């Protein structure tokens, strides 16, 4: 069911997507578009918390990271390390640094191979080492005044970027609801094609109900964008309408159900392994993958949205280009409503407890993100080029195969 919720939620809400592009470790999926094909849902543990844990297994706590940058000189390889991580029972703070070695190596190599200059001095080499475009630094802190509430703030600066990134989040857990308030300037988004966008200012307030026993769930939210989105790769492309300036009120509901064809329920005896040295408790590496089964699940629901304000900005965005972003073809409806649905079949063998070969899983999921767009596509056929470009106008079939090799599981 988690895969179904991710697929459906991403069509209407700005879900967190894992990315190494920023030190915070996450970007937002563009609302109103399918979930990026090669993306994964971001972990609740932010990047600094992950580096704090993973650093224990790397020499000197230095962790390699790989992500292509807009500047070819900077290279794709970087090294990250956590310098400070003081913590108490309800508060922690972390300071993370990142270094890209390619540009430094190229610059020093050029100094030694330059025939017009003498042997480079220590001052010349130090100048390249201190080049600010090689480094990125981030600071993040979290405070929990109560067990059900936490406040998180983070800021980071990248040497190759002119402005810093700031983000604040307030989360409060009620008995049957979750309340989330987020603000970021700028906010990083990623669309279904993998294109990154920077929105100068983004603020959102979200109320999410927990799934009831009947499978019913609803969600209410407010989302405000300020400033015009900037495509980070510099290409002249149309900005998604959901990223244009304005205030949006959203509401959605869904009903989900799952039925097992067969399932081998895990018992406590199944997790006990008998060896020559005695009995050992060997649970599954992932509790969600601990039971072999075959099941079918589905979600159906609806959504509505209303856009307010910033009409002047929206009108100007339709007739101008901002920093290489064309918005001439973008028209955003002030009111919209739609239906969506998804069905998934899953079969799994193995308990994911052994060192290797203990998990084989296949998921086949069919998503219908927009019933209205699909109906228009059927009625108009191939006459409208706009419908052909709409990612929500056709169903999406997703196939996922998981096979355990060693103690890890590969998708």
Task: Record the strand order, biggest sheet.
Answer: 3-4-5-6-7-8-9-12-13-15-18-21-22-23-24
Structural class computed from helices and strand pairing? mainly beta
Low-confidence parts lasting 5 or more residues at pLDDT below 50? 314-329
Shape: globular
* Strand proportion: 35-45%
GO molecular function, one term: phosphatidic acid binding
InterPro entries: TGD4-like
Protein name: Protein TRIGALACTOSYLDIACYLGLYCEROL 4, chloroplastic
Organism: Cannabis sativa
Description of the molecule:
- With 411 residues, this protein is mainly β.
- The protein has one domain.
- Helices cover 15% and strands 44% of the residues.
- The protein is built from seven helices and 24 strands.
- The protein has helices spanning 2-9, 47-54, 101-113, 122-129, 311-319, 371-380, 385-389; strands spanning 16-18, 26-29, 63-66, 77-84, 91-99, 135-146, 149-158, 165-173, 177-185, 187-190, 196-199, 201-209, 216-226, 230-231, 246-263, 272-275, 278-281, 293-308, 321-322, 325-326, 335-349, 360-368, 396-405, 408-410.
- The strands form four sheets. It has a 15-stranded antiparallel sheet.
- Mean pLDDT is 82; it is low at 314-329.
Any descriptors?
Protein TRIGALACTOSYLDIACYLGLYCEROL 4, chloroplastic, phosphatidic acid binding, mainly beta, 15% helix, 24 strands, TGD4-like
Topology record:
Elements: H1 2-9, E1 16-18, E2 26-29, H2 47-54, E3 63-66, E4 77-84, E5 91-99, H3 101-113, H4 122-129, E6 135-146, E7 149-158, E8 165-173, E9 177-185, E10 187-190, E11 196-199, E12 201-209, E13 216-226, E14 230-231, E15 246-263, E16 272-275, E17 278-281, E18 293-308, H5 311-319, E19 321-322, E20 325-326, E21 335-349, E22 360-368, H6 371-380, H7 385-389, E23 396-405, E24 408-410
Parallel strand pairs: 2-10
Antiparallel strand pairs: 1-2, 3-4, 4-5, 5-6, 6-7, 7-8, 8-9, 9-12, 10-11, 11-14, 12-13, 13-15, 15-18, 16-17, 18-21, 19-20, 21-22, 22-23, 23-24
């Amino acid at each position: 069911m988690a895969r179904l919720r991710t697929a459906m939620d991403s069509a209407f809400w700005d879900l967190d997507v894992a990315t190494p592009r920023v030190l915070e470790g996450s970007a937002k999926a563009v609302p109103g578009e399918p979930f990026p094909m090669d993306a994964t849902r971001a972990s609740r543990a932010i990047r600094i918390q992950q580096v704090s844990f993973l650093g224990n297994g790397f020499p000197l706590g230095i962790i390699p990271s790989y992500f292509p940058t807009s500047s070819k000189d900077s290279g794709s390889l970087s090294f990250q390390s956590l310098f400070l991580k003081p913590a108490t029972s309800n508060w922690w703070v972390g300071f993370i640094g990142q270094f890209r070695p390619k540009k430094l190596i190229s610059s020093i190599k050029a100094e030694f191979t330059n025939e017009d200059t003498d042997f480079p001095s220590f001052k010349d080499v130090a100048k390249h080492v201190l080049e600010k475009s090689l480094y990125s630094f981030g600071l993040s802190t979290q405070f929990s005044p109560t067990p059900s509430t936490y406040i998180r703030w983070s800021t980071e600066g990248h040497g190759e970027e002119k402005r810093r990134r700031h983000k604040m989040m307030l989360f409060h857990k009620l008995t049957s609801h979750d309340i989330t308030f987020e603000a970021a300037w700028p906010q990083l988004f990623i669309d279904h094609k993998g294109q990154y966008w920077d929105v100068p200012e983004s603020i959102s307030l979200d109320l999410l109900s927990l799934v009831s026993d009947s499978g019913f769930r609803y969600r209410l939210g407010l989302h405000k964008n300020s400033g015009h989105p900037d495509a980070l790769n510099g290409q002249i492309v149309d900005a998604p309408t959901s990223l244009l300036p304005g205030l949006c009120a959203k509401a959605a509901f869904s009903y989900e159900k799952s039925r097992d064809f067969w399932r081998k329920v895990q018992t406590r005896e199944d997790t006990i392994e008998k060896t020559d040295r005695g009995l050992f408790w060997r649970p599954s590496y992932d509790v969600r993958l601990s039971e072999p089964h075959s099941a079918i699940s589905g979600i159906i629901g609806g959504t509505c949205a209303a856009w307010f304000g910033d009409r002047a900005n929206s009108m100007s965005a339709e007739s101008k280009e901002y920093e290489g972003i064309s918005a001439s073809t973008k028209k955003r409806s002030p009111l919209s409503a739609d239906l969506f649905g998804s069905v998934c079949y899953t079969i799994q063998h193995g308990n994911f407890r052994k060192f290797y070969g203990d998990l084989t899983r296949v998921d086949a999921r069919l998503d219908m993100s927009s019933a209205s767009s699909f109906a228009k596509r059927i009625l108009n056929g191939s006459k409208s080029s706009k419908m052909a470009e709409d990612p929500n106008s056709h169903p999406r079939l997703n196939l996922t195969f998981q096979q355990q090799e060693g103690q890890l599981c590969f998708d």
